[in-house]
Amino acid sequence: MNYRGAELDMHFSVTSDLNLLEDMLRILRDDGLHALSVYLERGTY
Questions:
Q1: 39, exposed or middle or buried, with CB in 10 Å at 0-12, 13-18, 19+?
Q2: Element spanning 38, H or E
Q3: Is residue 34 within 8 Å of 26, Cβ to Cβ?
Q4: Domain-by-domain residue ranges, the chain?
Q5: If 35 and its partner were Cys, which of 29, 31, 41, 44 is the partner (CB 3.0–4.6 Å)?
Q6: Predicted model pTM
Q7: Main-chain phi, psi angles of 30, to 5 degrees
């Protein structure tokens, strides 16, 4: 209840915090959808 109404302030850099679509599609092609999902869930991608 202490933080009710609080706002989450998140900032990210497009160049340093996001992965390239090209890399994501390569992983999808080479490792499959399940592996890509696991990488995203674990934060290893």
A1: middle
A2: helix 33-42
A3: no
A4: 15-45
A5: 31
A6: 0.55
A7: -80, -40
Question: Using 50, 70 and 90 to split pLDDT, how confident is the model at 1?
Answer: low
Query: How far is Cα 45 from Cα 32, in angstroms, rounded to an integer?
Result: 13
How many of the other CB atoms lie within 10 Å of CB of 11? 5
The single residue listed with the structure tokens 């609080």 is 6
Please, is 45 exposed, middle or buried when counting C-beta atoms within 10 Å of its C-beta (0-12, 13-18, 19+)?
Answer: middle
Q: How far apart are the first and last CA of the chain?
A: 34
CA–CA gap between residue 22 and residue 30 (Å, rounded): 12
